[in-house]
Design a protein that fits this description.
Blueprint lengths: L10 H10 L1 E4 L3 E6 L14 E5 L7 H18 L8 E6 L8 H16 L1
Parallel strand pairs: 3-4
Antiparallel strand pairs: 1-2, 2-4
């Protein structure tokens, strides 16, 4: 499970990462990564945070929750590769409902490699 300090729950964090962050997509998901520059914010966190967006287009609640669990586990394994105070938003696409655990992990790693370049 992703620890509480690494969870992105602030709506403004989601909004900023989607608007200003780098984006990479695959068949089953889209990744937005925002690495804060030299701005000094009062609420700036020194650890990476990850948030997930899985809407109803993915499927019913059971499917959405399964996709979120799989993505959380995969993201936890990728935290060490993220810069210090990065904000990562992972948006699941409808194809993620049929994707297996390994396929979601491969897509996430591929997208992260692309945004970290």
């Amino acid at each position: 499970m992703l620890s509480r300090r690494h969870r992105l729950v602030d709506p403004s964090g989601f909004k900023e990462a989607v608007r200003r962050g780098k984006r990479a997509g695959s068949k089953s998901l889209v990744v937005h990564l925002l690495v804060p520059g030299t701005e000094t914010g009062a609420d700036q966190v020194n650890e990476p945070q990850v948030g997930f967006v899985v809407n109803k287009a993915v499927g019913p609640a059971v499917v959405r929750n399964r996709v979120k669990r799989r993505l959380r586990h995969q993201a936890r394994e990728s935290l060490s590769g993220l810069p210090g105070s990065a904000v990562l938003v992972v948006r699941a696409l409808p194809a993620s409902a049929e994707a297996g655990y390994a396929e979601l992990g491969a897509d996430l790693r591929h997208c992260l490699e692309r945004v970290l370049r």
